[in-house]
Amino acid sequence: MIMPVPSALVARYFQLLVYRQFAEAERELERLKQKMHKTEWNRGYFRALYGMMLARKSNNNDSYALFSKIDLNDKAILNNYRREFSGHVKNGLHGDFDRGFFSAWADCMRVLNRMDLSNIPNVNSASATEKQKREQVQGDKNQATIQDFLRREDA
Questions:
Q1: Spatial CA neighbour of 111 closest among 13, 41, 25, 43
Q2: In terms of residue numbers, what domain contains 22?
Q3: Could you tell me if residue 130 is inside a domain?
Q4: Is residue 147 assigned to a domain?
Q5: Is residue 108 one of the residues assigned to a domain?
Q6: What's the Rg (C-alpha) of the chain?
Q7: Distance between CA atoms of residues 18 and 20, nearest Å
Q8: Which residues have a Cβ under 8 Å from the Cβ of 13 and sit 6 or more positions away?
Q9: Max CA-CA distance within the chain?
Q10: pTM exceeding the 0.90 threshold for the entire prediction
Q11: How many degrees, rounded to 5, is the angle at CA 92 between CA 86 and CA 98?
């Protein structure tokens, strides 16, 4: 029998991830871990939660990380992913660990779909100021580039 994970704690965890409040998210994750029974399903669920935090924390915009690929404001896409993950949860060919893993992602998509993220600037990026700095450097004609440096070396 699968022991349900406390949905209020999980929803709060997802909200903390979206708002990039990682210290509090880690505390919430530890609370969840304490409340989970030691089953393969819960182990998969927890691993997914932990992986979500690692992916959200990284600022390298990994093209394989789901959080960096999706627009969190696009409710249709979030719903499609939720349905896809839910299908994997119901698939009897997957083991308990995998079904727990996909269940965490389905729950994440469900919670994100219910959140109003329209008032959060750059939900998917590290911060608006970092993006502005990158654009400023790219637009600065006085900024040296590798090509400029290599041309000077060849001359």
A1: 13
A2: 7-125
A3: no
A4: no
A5: yes
A6: 20
A7: 5
A8: 25, 28, 29, 32, 49
A9: 73
A10: no
A11: 60
